Each structure stands twice: as structure tokens, then as C-alpha cells.
User: Fold these one by one.
Assistant:
Number 1:
Amino acid sequence: MILEVKDIKKKYGKKEVLNGVSFEMDSPCILSLFGSNGTGKTTLVSIIAGLLKQNEGSVTLYGIDSVKNRKAFQKMIGLVSQEIALYEELSGKDNISLFAKLYHLDKKQETLRVNELKELLNLTDEDLKTKVGKMSGGMRRKINLATSLLNNPKLLLLDEPTANLDYDSEKQIMDAVKKLSQSICVILITHSLDTVKKYCDRICVLSNGVVAKDTTAEEFLAGTL
């Protein structure tokens, strides 16, 4: 078992957002969390990332509990949230170096990993020299994704990573994510059925605080036609 999400419950005051969410991932793939706004997708991803504590239930990754061994758990996580987490006044390279320090990578490790990510995301040295504030939306998203991959995560969590991007930029990012999913687990929040069709292997539909449907993307899409 790679990832086990078991009976997750979360309340905000009296409002119950998650009411016993459970699913497992036992092999690398892209799993889409799908559902209308307000169904708890972002809350669930925050809990899986170890950033938000659930009221009940557990999350384990390779047997490591997100609450009992939070530090070791979070070392295995890569998270791309809805908002771009970069410093606009810094270049792409400087942003990456800053995150590399947070991950305690030495210069040799950083250089090696940056070269790998440049190839994966089709980034050039010129791209990395550009200040984030002057980048296109697609380039910002690429750099944002790169920072989340510096630590070679075992689980990548993506909360609408291609929001507001044009077709070509979205394709470049999702092609890279698909390649990553050959060796790691990916959980993707998206509202796009087209993205599910092209890239996702499995889908969990959240409704009323629980997993209403857990099936292959192919079977889900067949049922929506």
C-alpha cells in the first residue's frame, strides 16, 4: 500500500465538510478528486499534505502516519496549491534555490535536480533567469511545479495546477505530470472533464462529505455521456 486515506472527518465549527472519506492508492497513477465547489476537495488535499489536522481518521504514506510522524511524512510530499507560491521580485532560479535550501539540498544536489526538472518541464537557462513578475502565466506555473518537485516526492498533490492557462501551457504541464505518474502517485483537483479524459487513470467523486464514486476515469466518463 502506498497511500491510505481512512475515515477522514473534518468540521469547521458545526459545519461538517468531510464525513468519513476513505480511499487507497496501491500503485503510481493520477487520481482525480472531482466534485462541485464546496465539497471539501481542497480541505482533503490539505489534510493529506499534513497541513491541516483532521478531527477523525488517518492518512498514511508508505506506512508513515501524517500526524504521528508528521516531519517524515511531509518529506515525501510535493504540493502545488491553487495560488502560486513564488516571490515575484526574484528570478525563477532564485526561487528554486530558496526552496532547495528549505529542503536542505546542497549545491550539488540542487544542480542535479534542477537539470532534471529543466528537462522534464522544458525550461531553459534564459527562462530561469527571468523574474517571476515578468513571466507568462504558463511559465510561472512551471516554476511553481518545479519547486514542489525538488525533494523527489513520493506523492504529488495538485490543486488546479493549470487554472487559467492556455491550451499549450496546460498541455506542457500535464504531459510532465503524466510522465511523473509512471513512478509516483499524483492526486489532482480539476474541474475539467477534458483533463480527466486525457490524463487521469482514476477518479474519486466527493459529494456530501464522502466519496460518492471511486472508479476508473474511463468508466466515469462513459457514465457521463
Note: The radius of gyration is 17 Å.
Number 2:
Amino acid sequence: MTYFKKISELLKDFKRSEDGMVAVLVAVLMVLLLIFAGMAIDFGRAYNTRRAVNQALDTAVLAAARSLATTQLSKQEVEKIISTYFKENIKRSLGSDVEYTVPNVDYDSDGDTVSASASATVPTYFIRHIPLITKNSEDGVDSLSVSANATARFPISDVEIAVVVDTTGSMGNDIEALKTASEDLLDVLLPVANNAQKSRIRVSYVPYSYGVRLGFKDGENLAKKATFNRSTDQCVHWRIGSQMLTDRSHDYEDERERVDYIGSDVNQCSSAQLIPLTSNRDVLLGSINNLSADGWTAGQIGIAWGWYTLSPSWRNFWPTESAPNDYGQQGVRKFAILMTDGDFNQVYVPHSTGYADYMYRQKMRYNNYKHHIDPMEGGKLKRRDHEQIASTLSWREYQDSLESGMPFQTAVNLCQQMRNEGIVIYSVMYGSSSLGQEVMKSCATSEKNTYYEANNKADLIAAFTRIANEIKQIYLSE
């Protein structure tokens, strides 16, 4: 029998009673009103508790989903995240007399959703006294139980980001701001608590001036590898011929068995080292902290090497953990962030005598190939053949800052090729150089949405942070 039915019968008893008095009836009605008001309070507390549990659970599950979008986690790690966030949020919302359960988590490491449920028990203040009216002890309720569920879906994406930064002489008074901007970018993409071994985000860092400085792979000097022993101090610049506008590997041979070799013998480059794709924040900070300003602006070389860090054609060149994924691969997003403070003006070309010798050797090699005199195994040159041919090249440098010049046009064409491969390009122009603005606008995927102008140090730092947050939002909202 329901509470209300029992109370109705009780009122009928009062009506039939010959000895009933109005005062008694009023007193009983007052008690009933108090009980009803008390029931409203009890049910209201239960409703508010359920809402608090639901909000805390939503926050906890979303926190886990955000972590899963960037990091591979075990079920135990997911449970810890949800439990921690749930407790931190729920304890500020519930009364001290409310008891709640630890969230029960449902997560499959092969899936793209995470769910959790939790409940709470709310003691009653008034409903427990119903038996005083109904005269039935079973009608009392000492507590009310509430429960909530939450589910969140997260993208399973591998994110590759190339950060290409200008460290030329004109950055002398602003290099510390660039360091801060770069560190703040890492704070968003690879926070301090990030697990480098499980992160889905990898960042490459490419400082440039005259050229780019490469590091080592398993003890091998990558600059020597890229230039076939021409580099003597880890410096590289660009390649000769049409391949300077592609992401072909350093030893790519065309149908005529011709190789466009990468130059180095000018021996000038940024003091900070290029870092290929990595989730290791400390490794990236090592390069950032070593930034210094010097040299002319070979921005097109920085862009090219930034592209190489994202290109699957260079997969075997970099350390295994830095190998880029394929273009268009499901669940893979590629981004580039380009920054400069001035005109691109540094050019390298082969000396005429060395270049003539080089072309003669290429021609002889092709003639031999046509007459089936092929010293190569499997149609590929051996490394010693590459070294012999590359040794004939020597380079000279000059400056050309015109819009029609080689640095500007090469940069624009490189950016176009990168966009054709699905790489989203953000660009930051620091300062007021009109040609610098034009090349950065031309490189950006969208002048409206991915091009930034920074007029001072604060703007530069803010631009990097905003770009990092936009990239993070893109893959979190997939």
C-alpha cells in the first residue's frame, strides 16, 4: 500500500470519528505537511546528489578520453585517471553524510570509447519517519540510492608536427622569446607528465639559418650520410636540380639513374640541432635551449628539412622511433609550423667547374647504362659510387631576397607540394618584412585560419600557444 493511499484512509478515519475535533485534524494536517515538505527535501538531496555524481563522472571520463587521444594507456591507467578526477570533483559537491562508490570503468584498449558508472547513497531525514503515520515499519526508508553513467569517444590518431624556426642574426634580441614560445608549444602538445613511450604525438624541431644541423643515428653522422661524406661539421643545405622541390630520399635515382645530391661543403648552419620526430620532451628542449642567432635566412632549406622529417620517403634515414607514417594513412595527421622574421635570402649553387665534372660523370653513367654497361647491383648505386660522384661537387653561396628569387620561389613551391600531400601548414611572420609576410601567407594552408602575424615578443609566444591548442583541438574533435 502506498504512502498516499494510507494517508487518505487515515483522513477518512478522522472523518468518521465522532470525537474528532477540528484542532486535532489541523494538527494532523500540519504533521502531514511537514512530512511532505521533508520528503521533498530528501528527494531534492537525492536529485542534487545524482547530478553531482553525473557531472563528476562526465568530467572524469572526458579527462580520460583526452589522455587516450594523445597517449596509449592500459585499463589500470585509465581507471586511475577516472578515479582521481571523480574524487577531486565529487568531494566538493556532496554532503559529508553521502557515501559514493569508486567508478566502475569499461575500456577496451582496441576500441575508441571509454565508459564509467558510479553510485551514491543519500541518508534521509524525513522519509524514514513515515512509519509514525502509517504504523508500518516497512514503510520507512533510511536512504536513497542514485547512479550515473558516462561515455566518451576519443580519436585514435597519430599526430606528426614539424616545427621550423628562424634562428638567423636578425633574431638576436628575440631568441629568448622564441625559446619561450617553443617551450609553451611543448607544454600543450607534450606536457611534463607526458609518457614519451606511449604518446600518439611526435614533434620534430628544425632550427635554420644558413642551413640545418643534423645529429646522429646509432652513432652515424646523419649529415655525412645525407651528403655522402661531404659534410664535415653536421651542416647540410639543399640539393641541386629538380629534386630540391620534392621529398625524394637523399639517394633517390631517377629513370636516368641521376641523383640530385644534397650540399654541405659551405659548412654553415644553425648552432642548434635538428630533432627528428619524437615524443621525448627533454630531447626537444635540448635543441630549444641551444638556440642562438646567427647567419643569413635560408628559410627554404628549413622548410625542406622540416618536410623531410614528415616524409615517408625519408623513413629509413631517420632513427626508427622517428620514422614518419605514410601520407593519407588512416588515423594519421601531419602538421607543419613555419616561422621567420624576415626575407628568405640565402642561395647555394654548385661551382661551374665542379658542376661540369659532375654532369659529365652523370652523362657517362647514363651512356654506360644504355649500352648495358651497368656497374650497379640491382640498378642502384653503391654508397662508394655516390661518394665518388658527390665529391666532384663544390658549392658557392650568394644572397637573393627578391620575390622572383630562388629562395622565395623555392619556399612557395615546397609549401605547395607539402599541402598536396595533406600536410596542414601554420605559418608565423614575426616582424614587418613585406616579403616575409608574402612567403608566410603563401605557405599557410589558409591565410585566414592558419597564418599569424606577430609584432612583438608577446605576440610570438601567444601565436605558438594558440597554434598548439588549435592542433590539439583538431585531433581531439575528430
Note: The first strand starts at residue 99 and ends at 100.
Number 3:
Amino acid sequence: MNTEKSMIDAAYEALEKHGGALTFTDLVNEVAAILEMSEEEKLARLGSLYTDLTLDGRFVALTDNFWDLRKNHTYDKVHIDYNEVYSEDVEEEGEEKDKEEEEGEEGEGEEDDGNVEEEGEEKTVALDEDVASFVGQNQ
């Protein structure tokens, strides 16, 4: 293995030479070729290259596991506004809770809540179908 360059520098060189995005697999193969790595060395250092790529600000992860140099992309194209992502999740959770509350209100006012049935002196506990199937009991 050629130890004059680090794997991350070899990745930068490979992407610059290619002139565009590469899949992670192709990038790893290019890095291995530049550094003259054996197949065993390549596989052993695969994870550290991926970690280095994610931490190094010179690189950007694109869709479908493609990687490219950040300088080749505008900020708007590669920036993810996490506030929007999290606010969408919160809105979806809020909508789900609203639906659950509405369904709960519809069931109010009924005498039997479905949990306990009385039959003479005996009381039997009615199990939810999901719970019954989980524990192997059928109603």
C-alpha cells in the first residue's frame, strides 16, 4: 500500500479527477487503486473512509449513495434544513394524536368499555385481539 497519501486525500483526488459524483463503491475502488491497496486492506478500511467522508467538510453525500466534492454544488442544492424535517415530524405526530383523541371521544358514554365483561358471578377479562395473538390466545 502506498502510504504517501491518506485515504481521504486520495478520495478528494479521485473525485477531482473524475469531475463529478461517484457512488461510494466506485469511490472506494478509485481510492484503493490510487493507494495501491490489496482487497483485504480495502475492506478493512472501508468503514473509516466512510466516516472520514461524512466528517470532512470538503465532501457532500448526495442521493443514492453518491459522493461528490462540496465545491461542485451550490449551498441550496445540498443543504438540508433540519428544522423543516423536524417540524414535519411534529406536525404528523400532532395529527395522529388528534385522530386518537377524536376516536376516544366517540367511544365515550358507552357503559361497557370492552375490558371487563360480567357473566353472573364470573368476571372474564376481554383481551385485545393484538394482545391475544401476541400471547397465543384466541378469543
Note: Confidence is low (pLDDT under 50) at residues 120-128.
